[in-house]
Each structure stands twice: as structure tokens, then as C-alpha cells.
Amino acid sequence: MKKVIYMFFFLTSLVICTADTFTNKNNDEIFYGYPTQKTKGNKTLVRTGSNFQAKYIDLSEYDIEKNNQGRRSKVIVIDINDEIEYECEVKALENAIEVESNQGPEFILLEIDTPGGRVDLAERICDALSKADNCRTVAFVKGGAISAGAVVALACDEVYMSQSATIGGATKYVITGEGPKSLKEAYGEAVGEKQQSIWIAFCEGVAEKNNRPTRIVRAMIDKDISVVEVEKEGNRAFICSTDKKVPDKTVKTWSEKGKLLTLTASEAVECGIADGILQSREELVSKLATKDARQVVNSSNIKVRQAYKLIEDNLTKIKVLEEAWTTLVSEIRDIDDMIANTEKTNYSVYDDSWGGGYVVEKEYASGARAVRESKIQQLRTLLSQLIKEYKNAILTGKKFRELDGEMKELREGLKSTEKAYKKLM
Fold first, then answer.
1. 74-223+260-298, what's its fold?
2. Summary mean pLDDT of the chain
3. Are 33 and 52 spatial neighbours (Cβ–Cβ below 8 Å)?
């Protein structure tokens, strides 16, 4: 009974959050508009009318029907086309999903082609999609939604795939110095099992929220189970093979023990992981959006990623220059110590680095000073190059607020380098 009540509550809340026609339960007032994620107390900001004027209402006081009559005639397109690995890129994604959902588009379309990536970042994207319950979200898997990418796709309200796309293989690994390892290999049996259980529960929760078969999703994560499709009293169900009862009629075995499940597009549609197969974004928009809806691409996450990669190149050069800086400073100090010690002596010294043979201390010190001056000049040139690399990195990233943390460190490094350069001059 509790299960039935939960599902009824979920379906009701889904309609309320994504709808567009508002009918007051008390006085039959009707208006068109769309809700946002902004709230004050128990009231939500909605935008209404042809000018999308803002007002706060208690959503529980309204019957709300989804029909796009109060929304802007546009579809927002956000591309996830690489590994999910940079926090700054995910920050941009989170911001884009929130901002765009509050603009009232017909839906937000995530085009996905990713081998996966960091689980913690995938969880954040899923959370952002969950918070965007004021706007319909659609995933279009145009290549692969693998590993963490599969869970991101399943966090959307609807999932469509191209004919050649795949989805699955969502087990969690730990990257170590010896390469990727399973959770149990990295943390031991007890801790690994606990971490795996948490990840499975999260993914199954995402699937259940959007009415996807949870056991199919589990088979994408856990290779130690076998999942079969059975017919129970005329109803279709996906269960672990170990839970199969004698009266249950096996329809299909979906995964075998020892193998992670990855689905083709047709398989995904067959088992209910995906809602359909479409060949392009244009076909999807034509199918799901109103006739005159325009496509608006939000590429903020891609731009942040590109900027971060450029900054990484600068940081590689900065690291090399800073190591050379440290070496030069050490060499200059050694020469200073040698000069100081030589000038205190009253005997000749042997040296091979400038002229060779026995020389008196004054001649030795004079040669050392010449070498020192050469190294000082090298240091000036090096610091000048280092300042240039810092400035280039800052120029690349300063327009992206998602890179504020990196910008702070770069500015501190630039300040320190400029101070050293001025002191040297």
C-alpha cells in the first residue's frame, strides 16, 4: 500500500512542477505561465501572460496542466560531448540548467556522447536536473551514454537515442597509480561493498524517479547479478534471476552474471530504459516541440572546458619555469657562498670551470662574478617568461566565474613572480 501511495504522490508532483495552465482550486481563476526554481517561503515565482510578468503563488492552491501554452517557444540545447572530469565544466552545466529552466523553454535537451567520468560530478549533474522539475528535460544519446553518462541520461524526464547509440556500463571504479581498480580492490571487501551499495542505491533512485526499470540499471553497475524479464500474472517485470519463482514465466534474460550490461538503442527501448529512437536533434525537436519552436544552444560548459584546457597548458609551462627558477636561485646562492669564502682566504684555489689551473683568490672571485651575472640575466629572462604565462592564463579564464578558484591562485602566483622580478632588477 505504501508503494502505491508513493507512486501516486510522485506522478502528481511531476504534473504540478512541469505544467503550464494554472487553475485555482478555490475560484476557478485560470492563467497561463511557467514556474521557476525561485521561492519565497511556501510560494514559487511563476511568470505569466504575454509579457511573462512575475508573481509568487502557492502551487498547492492550483491544478496545473502541462500544455506549453504559457511557455516560451524555444528549446535549449546543452551538449555533453566529452569525459565528465572537470569541476568547472560541471559548475557551468549546473548554472546553465538552472538559468535556462527559469526562462520557461518548452524543454531542455541534453545531447550526450560521453564515456563517463567522475561519479561525484555525475551526481551533481543529476541533482541539477532533479531541481529543474519546473521544466521538462530530455536526453538525446547521439553516441554513447556510458558509465556515469548513463546515469546522467536517466536523470532526464525522457530519453531518446540514435540508432547506433549505446547506454550502460555504469560500474564505479577508483583511479590509482596502478590504473583503474574496482571498489573492492581499492578499499577492501567491507568498505568497497559499502561504496558500491551507495552508488547502486543512487542510480536505482534516479531510475525509479523517472519510471525506468531499476533492475536493468543495477545490471549496468553490478556484474554479480543476472537480470531476467518475467511475466507475473500477465504483467511484465524485471527481476534478479535468484528472485524468480516457479510460476514466473521467463520472457528474456537481459544480463548474465559476470558481465556488465550495456544496451543498444533498440534494446534500451525494448526494456523501457529509452523512450524511442530518433536519427538527429532536428528530428527530436520536430517530434517533441511546437511547430515554431527555435533551438537555442547553451555552450557555456564547453567554453569553460576549452578555457580550462588552455589554462592547463599554461600551468604546465609555469611548472617547468618555476622549477628552472628554483634551480637558478640555488646555483646563484652557491656561487655567492663560494665568492664569500674565497675572498676570506689567503691561498690559491684550483678550478676547472673558467680557465682551469691554480688561480689566486681575486682572479677566482672575478670569474665567479661573471658566471653569477650570466645566471642573473638568465633568471631575469625566465621570470619575464613566467609573468607572461601567468598573464595569458588569467586572460583566458577571467571571464568565466566557474574558474574563480583557479584565477585566485594564478593572480597570487603572478603577484609573487612580479615581486621577485622587481627585486631582481
1. 2-enoyl-CoA Hydratase; Chain A, domain 1 (3.90.226)
2. 87
3. yes
